[in-house]
Batch of 3 targets.
Target 1
Amino acid sequence: MTTNESYQTMKMLPGDEIRQIMWRYADRYDIQMAVMGARSVARGLVARLVANGERNTHEWTEGKNALYQAFDESGITAAGLDIECGGIIEGPRNHALGLIAFELSWVDGGATTTSLINNLALGPIVEKGTPEQREHYMKACAPLQPGEKRRVARGAFALTEPLPYVGVDTGVVSGRVTVAEWEEGKEPILRVEKRGRFLTNMAVATFVTAAVETADPRIKSSCMVILEDTDEGVFDRGAPTLKLVHQLSNTHDPIFNLKVPASRIVGGYTVKDGVIIPNLTHSEIIEAVFARTRVTVGLMTAAKLLSAVEPVIRYQRGRFRGAAGIEPGTPRYDLGLQMKEDALQRLADVWATGEAAAALGFETTRAFDAFTPVESNVLEDFKKAGVSGRALMKALRKPQADAIELLGLLKQPEASRDNARVAALQADPLVQYVWQSALCNVLCPATKLWDTGWGANVLREAVSLMGGYGITEDCPGFLFAKWTDAQLEATYEGPEVVQRRQISVTMNNEVFLAQVDTWIANLTALAAVKPETGAAAIAAGLDLWRWMRAYVSSNKDAEGRALGQSTRHGVLFPLADALSWLLAARALLDDVLELAAKGPEHPVVGPEIEGYVNTFTDLACMQAARAAAEVGRICSELFYGYAASAEQTGADGAAFQSLRATLDASLAGTRLAKDRVAKALSQIMIPEALDYPQ
């Protein structure tokens, strides 16, 4: 590629047709309608609430409360429910919820939280509840049908508690459950006592899924219990949390002291020798819930980043219009004095980060949608067979070996590999289970870590590109509000430390490492035929990361301490960061390849597809370069930073230098790609005004 005049770039920012291809829902009319419904609410009611200053109060106002009706009427509420319980999405529910979160967050993150909080409250019930619990509470949350009269249930999720815990360690809770009454031949009645902190939706919640620890020898373990506002005892919603962000969601510090039937234990229980044994601990349930809901939080920040591109362009282009001597047709008038290299290059980084964050998030939602039925079927089969604990781990050894074999075969060119064996392995549900679980267990925390953590940092850059307007209430696109909201998104459902800790464990799964090897092989092959994509940089980055992970696992620092021990956060956490950078860059490249393959045949965007593919390829290339550079920096700091001297690194030093040299060479041409993206930004057409009020 060159920067000559014949090189086509996208003429307009991508619209629905482009996104439907890249994010894989072009053939799903139901999801498209859910997206349009969410967009209508976001750029209508939500935008008006923000513009009218409803974010500026801690109280839950009548205006904010109108969100619930809008969500019910638009289909947003129903998107998270099973079809038979009033839902509207058949199949890829995680993907649909991610897209809805994206649309709402384009305008306001707090509104997004309000729209999705029922899904979080229902999460323990949906993922691990009994069939009766799932059906009852999903139907209770379903929007009213014409002529139907009942109270629509609204939920809250009660995990976090006042200091010293506040959710920092989800395995530790101070809320307690005891036996209140237990008459012979009757269902036990439990007493649940819990103080909550930072609980969303408590202003309206009719039920709460609460994590509690046992304080009674007649209850074996911790559990989650469903509380209702009609239960006997204290259901005190508490005072509003004095937060400064996400003000279109309500957050309180409630107090519960309630008597509830034991049938409200999420997932059910058994009784043995006079002891109630919950089928699941609260930690087991929370792990299953957060594995999915954290992804939508990442997409919330991704939406904010992409929503910033158009306001920044408009501001920079119009900044000096009207000044003396600046007439139509002059560069200052047409492009804006500040739409020169610095502003353009910085905005290119914001844009590329947003695209990569969205790509990683939607890849993860699709991965969970593929994994969910596999997981459900496999675990149900093991449950029926009475296989659990160590027996389960033993039963998965062969499927793990088979999954590694499959990934090894997928590294090979299709024409030369044993395709019959590939087909047989791909058809094995146990192989799919261990393969997909290994991938999802890394993708989820990586999405949450990179999208919200790095994304929040990059949003500050977008704010700075708006000059003084960036810190005002009437900043076009509400960018200051979005930047501050992003700080919460980086924290809730587990801050960066939680995600890094999870990745530092899950990245060592041998099946995942086999997947990395397959990615390296496939990216290297792609780079040979399409060097403009940045595939070589991602491959080199993954190769260096793979080597470095192995090195720290088997070596010590200059003071004789093992580098790879679990408590060495200064070693393992940077490696988690490096991996997340690469996963985001690879996801964006995958989306671009999808657009290049499917775009030309699209009746609307087909004639303009070359420009879109070119610019998106450049965005992928510059993001790949940034990711590879971050990996190089991190790995160099770890390798040499823990050595006594460079001279004493020996053969390992030579191997590292070789890999680092390959990575550095892979960056050839990537800054030219960034220049092309910057030029595209200077010429791209935008509407006269944003499509939502200021």
Target 2
Amino acid sequence: MKLYRICNKISLLLHVLASAVGYFVMEAICRHSFIEAWNYMTQKPLVFAYNTAFIFTSSLIVYLFRRRTFWRILVTLFWLILAIINGVLLMNRVTPFTGPDLHLITDAMKIANKYLPVAGVVAVCILFGILVILLLMLLIKGPKHQKKIKYRYNIPLILLAVALFAGSTQIALDKRVLSNYFGNIAFAYEDYGYPYCLATTIFNTGISCPRDYSESEIKRIEKTEKNIPETNEESRPNILFLQLESFFDPTLVNYLNLSEDPIPTFRKLMKEYSSGYYKVPSVGAGTANTEFESITGMSMHYFGPGEYPYKSILKETTCESAPYVLKSLGYTTHAVHNNEANFYGRRSVFPNLGFDTFTSEEYMAKEDEKNPLGWVKDSVLTDEILKCLDSTEGSDYVYTVSVQGHGAYPDEQILEDPEITVSGAPTEEENNKWEYYVNEIHEMDNFVKELTEKLADYPEDVVLVMYGDHLPTMGLTVEDLDNKYLFQTEYVMWDNFGLQKKDENLAAYQMAAEVMDRVGIHEGTIFRYHQARRNTKNYQVDLETLQYDLLYGERYSYGGESPYQRTRMRMGIYDVTLDSIQCVSETDHTYYIKGTEFTPSSEVKLNGEWYDTVYVNPTTLMITGTELNDFDRLAVIQRSNSSTRKPLSKSYDRSCYALYADNPWKLNVDTNTDADMESEQ
């Protein structure tokens, strides 16, 4: 009891100490190393102290309750569980646990096996159950504070502590101890600590209402665009964007020695066509944000730190974009990505950006052509892009997102006979990473060569913009680069009809407007703004106001209501069809399922149940083990390659008797369509 009384007298001091120790453990879990946590604490003491104060302030709630032991343990567990979640996620992905991830908490059990083995998931569930029971016992039977709680003192003191903490946050931002702009969310967590960054991604989202926001202010901004010419009614070239994953010029890294130029094609195209540096909103990660800027013309600078609009506002509403604007001129709009459809939530988001079709890896016959890390090679994209162009008689907008250059890059040498060798990095492990990366982007450069050669002979006018989405995840610093800037890659604006070469540096959010301007298209609120106001006074200030109006405000630019409706997006360019059944072996009941547009992601459903399916080729699937009866019903489903394995689309449901090749009653139905699968999600 004596010890209890002593502890009670110095409880605030112990509270501070516990907060510091607890925070250190959190960072050790997040960084997967106590040594890294120690280095962080000693090298950034002010940041460490700030986050300790954060945890301390959040735990002051215990002084409002008599069962303080219970509440102390509960608050500690809260922070500890968040740290464990982040630590587990960082073992399997580049980006840490952020505010938008909280929206996915209901799907946590569905995808838990992606990060933990089945036994691990079971163990976690058991431990969680035990923990809940122990907490309930502690709440009921645990020790109580014996004295009466003085709320009239405690509440004001807690509020004072919160106010002081808020003030310290502002001071830390002003003195640049902290930052409220994250170019790379993973690096931000390392620099500014887990509690601060997590809280920032939860509470600081969207675009804040500008001080002078009003209808009259929007009208004033619109008047500054009066000199923009009308759209050229005759100019409707195909417009292609190719976003190359982690693609940049490694010769800009001043310590690297390369046996040969890894990107000779891209470099040659830069000399012959319009080109320059491409300013991107992130470094080392953040593909979806470069994508967002390039598609919408909106700058990420005005959003919350570390925010992904794909995970926030675009899940809720449509957004003006190049696809929507070009659709109004008769374009058909396509998205192509050689990774799973649900990555970054693209399947849900793209209809809110105006895309008519989306071809993900699940709809690519060559999706099994992968690099050593398991990413689908970019070479498969050539045919998919051409398929988009060939699918319509009119003009097309095709936005392609590549994936081959994706990390994390191996620190061991996994290439047996690399075409390009690398030296000069500080360690052998880093040399191995660079060597792998350089050889991957060399293959991507070969893909660029193949694509441009085929498009050169295409019978329609084509503009193709190619660029890297961000620098690779190599821990590069400004001092490592000849161009002394981390937030830029390079671009080429290639064409097959003789556009004049014009070299200039552009931001990702300016590119779509620039392409439209070059081909005589002057449509869309945000794109006309860029065309009229780039490099003018108050350009950035007015851009922030305009973005707020279009996404979060009263939409004065549209007369109060957005004209853009969510599209009924088709997965894949062409329908998957189910045409016939051929019995291969009656002994073991082996059948060929014949149709079109099959891929390795195609799977048969028999009478509503999933059936083990073997992919043979784009027109043939094989099933075995069960005799098919006349009135059994078959469908071919394109299943997601994500851990959820959700259906993406399906063929028309057919009865077996109507599919047998030798059946005189076989139906010749050519009206099969991909069914909308949203109801199955």
Target 3
Amino acid sequence: MAVKKSAGGKSAGGKRRGFREEKLQVLSDREHLLAKLSLTFGEQEDDGETVSRQKQKAVMETVENAFDQVLKGYATRVRVKFNKDRSFTVQDNGIGLPVSEQTDEHGVVGSGVYYAIGRTKTSSNFSYEHPSVGTNGVGFSSVVLIAARVDAVTWKDGREFRLSFKDGQPGYFDAENGPDDAFTPVDPRVLHESADTRPKAERAGWEEGTRFTVWLNDSVFQSDNPYSDVDAAQRVKRTCALTPGMEATVTSYQELASGAGEGANLGGTVDEKAGAWTATYKFEGDEGVQTLLEDAAPRKLATDPFHVSASSEVKVKKWNVPIAADLWFTWCDAPSEHVETFNNTVFTRQGGKHYVAFQKALTAAINKRLRSMKKGLSVKDPDVTYEDVAHGLVAVVSTRMPGATYSNQAKDQLDGAPSVSKALTKMVSGPLEEWAMGRDKNVPAVCERVLKAARARLSAQKKVDASIASAKIAKAALPAKLVEAEGAGTGATTFLMVCEGDSAVSGLKRARTLDCALLGVRGKGINALKASTEKVLANGEVKDLINAVGAGFGTSFDLGAMRYPGGIVIATDADPDGSHIATLLYVIVDKLFPGLIDAGLLFQVKTPLAVVSVKNGDGQGGVVELPAFTLSEAHDMMRQLADAGLSYSTDYMKGLGESTSERLHQYAFSSEKCWQRVERRDVEETERVLDVIFGGDTEKRKEWIMSLGADVEVAD
């Protein structure tokens, strides 16, 4: 029977449908931004990180504003300063902000400064006309809307124009101390104008341009963690390296001033009297890229880098989009690859379409050359894989394209339409093939080392397969010591926890959640970075891990076929030995199961070293437990409690097998509280350190050991 509707949208005998006007809410730009913060600044994904990724994004949006001036040919110099109060200042010598009055589509009049940075909008950044590092024209405007304070200064024709913002509201502060200064809102069209009274020396090379000083509002972000001046300085250095002639000076009164940049290849000097670290970056020609390659490589480069360039156009929707790529690559005597990828100078730490295009094209080019060599690949031989090519590969992949899209707002991974991916692969294939088939005397040696790696891989695979077959161990056979999870292998979200020793398994077995399987490993595992592939795959505990995961390994690994789709969790004791075992497991997992770490499916349990129980800590006679993750943190905590006259007791959790079931359940089986996601950069840093410790470069190892002296704490 059909239901009739009344004229007001109400069905006969039913309730009125649709929106009720009183339920509609009109949000301001700021309110909308705060409600959907992750859309602009990305998900926090803190996972025990010491850095707020959202605050880091806000910092880089400000810095990238200055970079855009350089990329578009308006500026040549950038200054970045990280101040003691955790504000930061970014200045460029570009064309400055517009200052004349503007009128929007609603007839609202405002200054050019207000319309340039004080409102969210889609600007020319979001177009297929110019490459840009900005976030579609909304990035820095969003920073202004949510910052506690922003001071904007622009210089034009010998005049200085100023405007400040408090929580996105234009106005003026009566002092220069910070966001707590008295603030007077003003009409958006009001600009403070005066003569440019800067000293002549200060104006030299900076006659025109813009300067922003930003105090972030910590309360609007999802993490209390600060941003990292070290990461920001690395970003500045990389941009200069890829932009010959650009000059950038970074000054920091924060972590870098206290030596936090050691090992980050940032250079610079520390003025101990001023408490500041400063570095200036400027590269000419390929000098910057050479620096990036040397920074990325754990060992000396085997040859000077090869350089391949390519450009083309691709149809995206109705636009013909120009794309270009520069590829610099060489090899070093190391077992793993070290590749850094960029788009429009943005460091894409998780790769993306340009990285995949480079992988495919380089592998195809080397295969073609190997098939043409007398001692290369025969007709019966299979092609070499990128795994073989990547053995010791050191590369910088830099692309440029307008209107680029990324997998997230943090721009970690270059995304884009399928047409872009195909065009990139096709574009770089020709030049890479010309390189491979050319007369460069170093190319045959490169091809021979790739072939050697391929033969070692195939030989190891055959021996392991034979070993498994002879022992009559089927691929799906589960290790005898595996404590199985409920629902494993059914598609349900289960986890495999790899534990340090049988005692840990015994303790964790009593405390675990049933969705978590347990697999014990004995002592320090094999060093997969130093050992041959054959030796790694022949290791008994490695075999157990392969069989437990049940999805193959190496090139045959199928991420979607994992017995435990939730991922692998590493659980080791909270001591140096436990940390060493965990790092070795990082490398093993990365070698066995390529793609698992990049998919965010490797975790490490971060149990506290000690738990301090405070009596009457809740004010109602109960007990409050305070976890401490370092010995110094525990001592500081106990000292503060004693000073406050509070009673407490301390339990140490160094060994997983020594802790109570209650404590283990609380601190080892909560993915939200104590599982830290292992990221690609963690594995790369692990490989770097292991190479220093166990590699053949004794001088590098000596320098590393000596550098630890400053970090040694002497207990009272």
